[in-house]
Design goal:
It is a single chain. The protein is α/β, with parallel strands linked by helices. It has ten helices and 14 strands. The two termini are 31 Å apart.
């Protein structure tokens, strides 16, 4: 059995522990959190025998093969560095670091120690995104022209951690506030279809009646190597949605990652005026099928929208056991880090910003 430990016992840590529990050949051997009560309660809930408030003691006592780091982003560099140096592979929640320089420091430690450093790109491993990636690899989209990734969530609604003055969400200390908590997700999904970022321009609205000065509406228009992308976060509506749409020269596809199923719009044979009608009929049947599948998933008690995380965790340990390459490469993590960096600087400067090259740094 491979031995796994989790550092940080907040909400997302519970999803990591559930994914570890579901993965074959893996055992969770330790949980760590600064709160002793939370660490003990989480360990008890998932049947983990050891818990600690000091991650160094956890590393020494449990000697895990891999550590999942689910603490706030500002702590990732120090914790991940020590875990790598202690000989553990590291699976880090997004964002893996708060700067390109910190990311390069971690990458240098991972490479010198011969350990894996993996960022949680979980939505890439959802069934429906995997379907879009297969269509892309097979050339079914034709030329990918544009990709749009949009998150709609009432982030500043009463009861949200983003507006909790007593225990604010860590992302609220980042330059883009709540947007920073989603930007990595938006970036790796877009990057998978249009490649490395070249430049970005951003527009932000800061008119939330609840969180003064916080970004309530965010858009980033990106010029990438193989197409354009539009990334967005909207906080004012009441409909929860996480949508990715890929537009190609021969096929368009749309997925709501909070639900199940893709909607495809194709080029078709026959009289051109009838093609939109045929696509509308196909869309209707797809919507009905997807509604049934979404209901079935909600009733199943499984991972729900975290299906990609469960699959990524299982793949992480399966590849580790087989001695293969990690499921998310360092090159991919660096590329996504550049997306986040360019977009963040464009938003802060309210101007078009080209890609910045990180300075060479050692561990």
């Amino acid at each position: 059995m491979l031995r796994a430990a989790v550092i940080g016992a907040g909400h997302i840590a519970k999803q990591h522990l559930a994914a570890i529990d579901a993965a074959p050949g893996v055992e969770a051997v330790g949980v760590c959190d600064l709160s002793a009560a939370l660490a003990e309660l989480t360990a008890e809930r998932f049947g983990v025998t050891a818990w600690e408030t000091d991650f160094r003691r956890l590393l020494a006592d449990c000697r895990p093969d891999a550590v999942h780091i689910t603490t706030p982003a500002a702590t990732h560099l120090a914790i991940a560095k020590e875990c790598l140096e202690a000989g553990s592979h590291v699976f880090v929640e997004k964002p893996i670091a708060t700067s390109l320089e910190d990311l390069e420091r971690l990458a240098a430690v991972a490479e010198s120690s011969g350990r894996w450093l993996v960022e949680d790109h979980n939505y890439l491993f959802n069934d429906d995104v995997q379907q879009l990636l297969r269509l892309h690899r097979e050339g079914r989209f034709g030329d990918v022209l544009h990709v749009e990734v949009q998150v709609d969530l009432p982030l500043f609604a009463p009861g949200s951690r983003f507006v909790d003055r007593h225990a604010p969400h860590p992302a609220m200390r980042e330059p883009l506030g709540a947007v920073s908590d989603f930007l990595t997700h938006l970036s790796y999904l877009a990057n998978a279809f249009v490649g490395p970022i070249r430049s970005a321009s951003c527009q932000c609205r800061r008119d939330s009646p609840v969180a003064t000065g916080a970004i309530s509406e965010f858009k980033a228009l990106v010029d990438a190597a193989f197409g354009t992308a539009l990334l967005g976060v909207s906080t004012g509506g009441e409909i929860d949605r996480f949508r990715i749409r890929v537009d190609g020269s021969r096929l368009s596809a749309e997925v709501n990652l909070f639900e199940v199923g893709a909607i495809l719009t194709r080029t078709r044979g026959g009289p051109k005026p009838l093609i939109p009608i045929r696509n509308m009929v196909g869309r209707g049947f797809s919507e009905l099928r997807n509604a049934r599948r979404s209901l079935s998933r909600k009733l199943s008690g499984g991972p729900g929208p975290y299906e990609g995380l469960w699959r990524l965790v299982a793949e992480f340990y399966a590849r580790c056991d087989r001695g293969e390459a990690p499921p998310v490469s360092l090159d991919a993590i660096r590329e996504v880090g550049r997306w986040v960096d360019v977009i963040t600087h464009a938003a802060c400067d309210n101007a078009t910003v080209s890609e910045r090259q990180p300075e060479a740094v050692g561990p």
